[in-house]
Design a protein that fits this description.
40% helix, alpha/beta, 8 strands, 236 residues, two-stranded antiparallel sheet, Rossmann fold, six-stranded mixed sheet
Length: 236
C-alpha cells in the first residue's frame, strides 16, 4: 500500500473512531473534538521569538492548550492531534525562515531533533519526526518547497531534561548529536518543545561540524523556565 493510501486510511479510521468514542479537546477538555476551535484560535497569530543566538520561533507558550496537546499526542497516544500540532510547527518554522531572511524558492530541509531512543521505544514512534513531516507538508501547501530530512543522530545517551537547570541541560546534551550529510538548501531544525534552547543549540553545533549552517529553528511550544514531569514530556 502506498504512503498516500496509508495516510488516507489512517485519517478515515481516526474519523470513524471519533464517531464511536467520546472525544474531548486535549487543550481545554471541551467535548466533541480532539482540538477544538477555541484552542485553534488561542494558538493563532504571530509566533513567539525564542531567545537564542540564531532565529528561533515557537508557535505558542507551553503553559496553555498547545502544551497540553503536545503531552497528549506524545504520552497519551492521541494521534489525531498530529495534524494541528504539525500545522502549528509549520507556522513557527515559516516565521523563523522569514526572520532568517531565507531566500524564496530554495529547498527547505526540515530536520527534527531526534527523540531519545528510550522515548521512542516506550512511545512506539519518534513523535518529533512525525510532527516534522506534517509541518513540511503544511509548508508545501503554502508554497514552500519543504521536506523532512533526517540530519541528526544520537552518538551518546542523554538523560531526560525535565527538571534540570539551564546549566545542567547544556551539559547533559553537549556532544550528544552528530550531523549527517544534507542536500543543498535551507536548514530549519525543529523540536516539539523548547525551554532553554540547549537541545536545539546542540543540533545546530552538530550540523555546523559537517560544514552546513542552520538558518533557523522552530518548535511547537516554548516555556521560559524549567518544567516538571506533571506538565511536560521531554524538553530541551
Amino acid at each position: 500500500m502506498s504512503a498516500a493510501a496509508q495516510s488516507w486510511w489512517s485519517q478515515a479510521a481516526a474519523a470513524a473512531l471519533d464517531l464511536v468514542v467520546p472525544q474531548q479537546c486535549a487543550g481545554c477538555g471541551a467535548p466533541g473534538l480532539a482540538w477544538c476551535p477555541q484552542c485553534v484560535h488561542a494558538c493563532a497569530g504571530r509566533s513567539l521569538r525564542v531567545p537564542a543566538p540564531f532565529p528561533c520561533r515557537a508557535a505558542c507558550e507551553h503553559d496553555g492548550p498547545a502544551g497540553r496537546a503536545v503531552v497528549a499526542f506524545k504520552d497519551d497516544g492521541v494521534r489525531r492531534l498530529g495534524q494541528p500540532l504539525g500545522s502549528l510547527l509549520a507556522h513557527a518554522a515559516a516565521d523563523a525562515l522569514a526572520d532568517a531572511g531565507a531566500p524564496r524558492g530554495m529547498p527547505v530541509w526540515v530536520v527534527p531533533v531526534p527523540s531519545r531512543r528510550s522515548a521512542v521505544r516506550s512511545r512506539g514512534a519518534d513523535h518529533t519526526a512525525v510532527l516534522a513531516g506534517l509541518a513540511a507538508r503544511a509548508l508545501r501547501r503554502e508554497g514552500v518547497p519543504a521536506n523532512r530530512c533526517v540530519g541528526l543522530q544520537h552518538v551518546r545517551a542523554s538523560r531526560d531534561q525535565v527538571g534540570l537547570t539551564r546549566e545542567q541541560r547544556v551539559a547533559n546534551v553537549a556532544g550528544s548529536l552528530r550531523g549527517l550529510a544534507l542536500p543543498p538548501g535551507v536548514i530549519v531544525v525543529v523540536d516539539d518543545v523548547t525551554t532553554t534552547g540547549a537541545t536545539v543549540a546542540e543540533a545546530v553545533r552538530a550540523l555546523a561540524a559537517t560544514g552546513r549552517a542552520v538558518s533557523c529553528a522552530a518548535a511547537v511550544t516554548w516555556s521560559p523556565g524549567p518544567r516538571h514531569r506533571a506538565s511536560e514530556t521531554r524538553s530541551d
